[in-house]
Amino acid sequence: MSEENKNYLSTGDTVKSWLLTTDHKRIGILFLFSILLFFTIAAVAAALMRIELLTPQGDLVHADTYNKLFTIHGVLMVWFFLIPSIPSVLGNFVIPLMIGARDMAFPKLNLLSWYLFIIGGFFAFHAIILGGVDTGWTFYTPYSSAYSNSHVVEMALGIFIAGFGSILTGLNFIVTIQTMRAPGLTWFRLPLFIWSLFATSVILVLATPVLAITLALMSVERIWGIGIFNPKLGGDPVLFQHLFWFYSHPAVYIMILPGMGVVSEVITCFARKKIFGYYFVAFSSVAIAVVGFLVWGHHMFVSSQSIYAGMAFSILSFLVAIPSAIKVFNWTMTLYRGSISFEAPMIYVLSFIALFVIGGLTGLMLATLPVDVHVHGTYFVVAHFHYIMVGGMVTAFMGGLHYWWPKISGRMYPEKLGQLAAIIMFVGFNLTFFPQYILGYLGMPRRVHEYAPEFQIYNVLSTAGASILGVGYLLPLIYLLWSIFYGKRATANPWNATGLEWQTSSPPPKNNFHETPVVTEEPYNYPPLNEIGEITLASNEHK
Amino acid sequence: MTFPIFPKAASTTAVQTDYLYFMLLGFSAFILALVFFPMIVFLFKYRRGKKANRVDPHLPEMKVEVTWTIIPIFISLGFFALGARAYFTEEVPPDGTLEINVIGKQWMWKIQHQEGNREINELHLPVGRAVKLTLASEDVIHSFFIPAFRIKQDVVPGRFTTEWFQPTQIGVYHFYCSEYCGADHSKMQGTVFVLSPTEYQNWLTRGEPKNSLAQSGENLFRQLGCSGCHVNSQAVHAPPLEGLYEKLVPLNDGTFVRADDKYIRDSILLPNSQIAAGYQPVMPTFQGHITEEQLLQLIAYIKSIGNETPQKNP
Amino acid sequence: MKENSIVADQFENAQQQSEAAHLGMWTFIATEILFFGGLFLAYIVYRHFYFTEFVAASKHTEVLFGTINSIILLTSSLTMALAVHAAKENYRLQISRWLALTIFLGLAFLAVKGLEYHDDIENKLVPGAHFDPSLPAQSQIFFWLYWTMTGLHAIHVTVGLGVLSTMLLLARKEKFSANYNTPLTLAGLYWHFVDIVWLFLFALLYVISRHK
Ligand code: HEA
Ligand code: HEA
Ligand code: CUA
Ligand SMILES: [Cu+2]
């Protein structure tokens, strides 16, 4: 192979060439494998939980073990899987490609992010092996800081370190997007995926340090017994909740904005149409990022904060839903008079919209004060966030992964299997989590390993759904791996999509482009369609 | 296995909450239809290879966008307002409630009635009467949740919280702890018995005669040595506590504070943080020496020697 | 261009590189502000809760040391600015001189802080079992915040000194000039940030409650 034709995968295959790489594409792949590892552990924890919950009695595991299971599940899923999922894997891979840059602005920092992530993961792992943590992913004080006798500090340290990894990723994205765009690529010619990642990065940079300091304070109280959050020592337990949610509510938007970005890319591509309302979709990302900082108190409606604070947070939570609504409406309108085909990424994206809307609407119910008083701390909340995080973001991640898989691996995945997996996931997902809404309104508290017998039927349905969902996850794992070796070779632009990332070969060369591209048009500029949805102008996409 | 769809609604709050919930469900169904009906039509009509009009319609983008931004804002505000109004009645107890103390600790609920009845993981109530619970925690945060009444309130250590409700139907219901609190969080639950008023009276007077809460408080007041300073002491100059409850107390920094439960609690646990005007900060702290239960008894006693009508703001 | 050699692969030109570096530093500072922000918030909340205890406690901080240190740090900000200025004007020799002075002042700051910590320990101001019993219990929270905030700040000063020493080495090798001074400018930005944080700490921990 000549030096010219080498791609980023074939330049160097030693372990060292991977572990010391500064190529954003390779770092993306490092992240992909690491988050899959954490996802697997967390998913096994979920499977155990679901099996335990088949019967009302606590017969499979001890109460204590169960508590550790959902803590591990929540912590790993949130900080070690979902937050890095789309940004660190897909974002890392495609941002420079999409903006026509040779790499991130700070490639070494990018690698450092991964190392911090791994070191943080190591501590989390260590905490789990030592015996786990039983505080829930929310670490509420004074339980976490004074009463729990599990490995809280190690886990907090792990999150703390991984958090700095996230901050550096966010910083790198901001700088890269601002300063490294190809000539002619103005802000309003940027793909919407870039907009959403920019907004995400702003949140990462501004919210994560607050989490870091909060967990540090909690650990300090735990280690030295100094009163910050423990009322017995003069502290205020509710202050912890304010600090925690000040981070964690914006963090939920870290966990959805990138998914929304993927939707905008995929839906335009498979409808062959320009996005409807580009400016509105772009600015709604920014609006979500900004308003998202003001609503944290909606997690604390029954925590004894003042009723007026409750009302303020309620109204702001309603308002933060508006930009999401705008996006959903624009996506729908984008389909109008398009030319729609149903490859796997498109199926994923359509299920994203369906599940996100359901999750979001139940979010509005939670924002309605009296309803939240009833369902707070029940399975209704569990269903709400799984609808958005699993139904939304994980689905979007799968969609994005399939969409860019040809670019990443240079191979096509088997299309029929892809479509099948997407449908299995949709069905399994709804069967798992819809019953939980009913359970929640019936009053089944979350984080319990025993429950009243009248709740059983829905738990059985939910567990059944989880096994289907599990298959839905395993399938892509298998065929994507298979495709790396046996898949059909991908062309530069297998989907006939617009966007700079499709103009370079699949997989791209180490420096992304043989010559720096110049941009002269708006994004998603799909040519006009004829009556049966084919592109009329001769396109020169296939080079 | 049974197939319940909907929990019993056994309080005034429950009716109110369900009403809102149904409205939200209806609204959600409407939004789902609004989004998915066109979407499904488009997916069908414009699938690739099917004949359809695909000429760019040039919709007035700005107008469309503004419309679907403004309308949801108004709908949202409507729901917020309905919710906020209901929340307000739900959080602010009316006058003349039946007062009951609930103390949460890992992993049980202890309940004290004013008449002196105590129960564990059970709560007996008369139907039709507004009840106010004063909640206290001995250790970590718990949350007192009665699904059939649609009410819930976190029980936060270091402070009192309250919740109120009015049961409307005689029956037996579950209550739960709904804030994760450690190993046996799942087991921290119990049963509410809503009785007819006469049955409730019978229940109250059942068993051996017992001290009322205030009487227990009075005994404690002596045992703990409070009376040594607060009742005609020669050695220490301490304020008399008769008529204190709900009075406006002048503090030595010139401000006033209402002597409510919180103030009395702080006076006993953090005596140095608010000093009554004209006195020396010599009262010792009782933090760590008395339990939440005893604290509530002391307060019941101070209340019983207190004012009948709360004093107006100056 | 002569500076081409120091433009990293991923950048088109030196200007892009310098823009990226600047934005990166500003973003980093934004993160840092929020990092300290959590502590400031805790401070404000607890000062509100335990006002009298905070007042009592803050009378025990050593305002003399604090003032000296404020002066030292402010001066060091000035010398740092002069170092950057010297680079921009191409006075290569002066860069090292001002940098060295800045580092010296930073060390002086840490030394004074060390003395103060020593006194604090003598005066039983470390929260915990040996805390000064004459102070109300909740003033431990004040001192708890005092130690974390100043400690965290001292760590930042130490990191800053490391960065400045590197700059000094580079300056000695005559790396900086009017054309190329991004690292130096950014080190300066960071140093000013650390300085400003100190001023806030000084105000909150030493000054505002003193005369109540
Ligand atoms: C990715 C994650 C994610 C996202 C995006 C959201 C989005 C939203 N969330 Fe959610 N939430 C979580 C993850 C997320 N949430 C998690 C993890 C928890 C629990 C944490 C824990 O306790 O462990 C939680 C808990 C939670 C609570 C607290 C519940 C409780 O504990 O008592 C509340 C209360 O207000 C809430 C509200 C909302 C709202 C209003 C939105 C909105 O942003 C949703 C906006 C979207 C839509 C509304 C749908 C699209 C709109 C339309 C189709 C048009 C119609 C709309 C209008 C007319 C307005 N969420
Ligand atoms: C962010 C991402 C994320 C993701 C992807 C998931 C994925 C899943 N989650 Fe989880 N979840 C959270 C985030 C997430 N969760 C958080 C933050 C909490 C709160 C924690 C807390 O309270 O602190 C939570 C809590 C939580 C609970 C509530 C626990 C409790 O309160 O007691 C439950 C219960 O059903 C649950 C289930 C599941 C299931 C079934 C999946 C599925 O998607 C997983 C599917 C995978 C498998 C099922 C495994 C692979 C399959 C097999 C090995 C085949 C065999 C399987 C069976 C026979 C079941 N999750
Ligand atoms: Cu008490 Cu959960
Ligand atoms: Cu939230």
Describe what you observe in this structure.
Chain A has a single domain (22-512), classed as Cytochrome c oxidase-like, subunit I domain (Cytochrome C Oxidase, Chain A), CATH 1.20.210. Chain A is 66% helix and 0% strand. Chain A has 16 helices and no strands. Chain A has helices at 15-19, 24-52, 63-99, 107-130, 143-147, 152-179, 192-224, 237-254, 257-271, 278-291, 307-335, 344-367, 369-375, 379-409, 415-442, 456-486. The two termini of chain A are 20 Å apart. Chain B has 314 residues and is of the alpha+beta class. Chain B folds into 3 domains: 12-91, Helix Hairpins (Orthogonal Bundle); 98-207, Sandwich (Immunoglobulin-like), CATH 2.60.40.420; 214-304, Orthogonal Bundle (Cytochrome Bc1 Complex, Chain D, domain 2), CATH 1.10.760.10. A 5-stranded mixed β-sheet of chain B has the order 3-2-1-5-8, with helices on one face. A 5-stranded mixed β-sheet of chain B has the order 4-10-9-6-7. Chain B has a two-stranded antiparallel ribbon with strand order 11-12. In chain B, 33% of the residues are buried. Residues 310-314 of chain B have low confidence and may be disordered. Chain C has one domain: Cytochrome c oxidase, subunit III, four-helix bundle (Four Helix Bundle (Hemerythrin (Met), subunit A), Up-down Bundle), CATH 1.20.120.80. Chain C starts with 13 loop residues before the first helix and ends in a 5-residue tail after the last helix. Chains in contact: A-B, A-C, B-C. The interface between A and B is large, with 94 and 88 residues. The complex binds heme-A (HEA) (2 copies), dinuclear copper ion (CUA) and copper (II) ion (CU).
Quickly list its features:
heterotrimer, A: 543 residues, mainly alpha, Cytochrome C Oxidase, Chain A, disordered C terminus, B: 314 residues, alpha+beta, Helix Hairpins, Immunoglobulin-like, Cytochrome Bc1 Complex, Chain D, domain 2, 3 domains, five-stranded mixed beta sheet, 12 strands, binds heme-A, binds dinuclear copper ion, binds copper (II) ion
**CATH homologous superfamily heading of the largest domain in chain B:** Cupredoxins -  blue copper proteins
Overall number of structural domains of chain A: 1
CA radius of gyration of chain B: 27 Å
The biggest beta sheet of chain B is recorded as:
5 strands, mixed
What is the terminal separation of chain B in angstroms?
A: 61 Å
Number of domains of chain B: 3
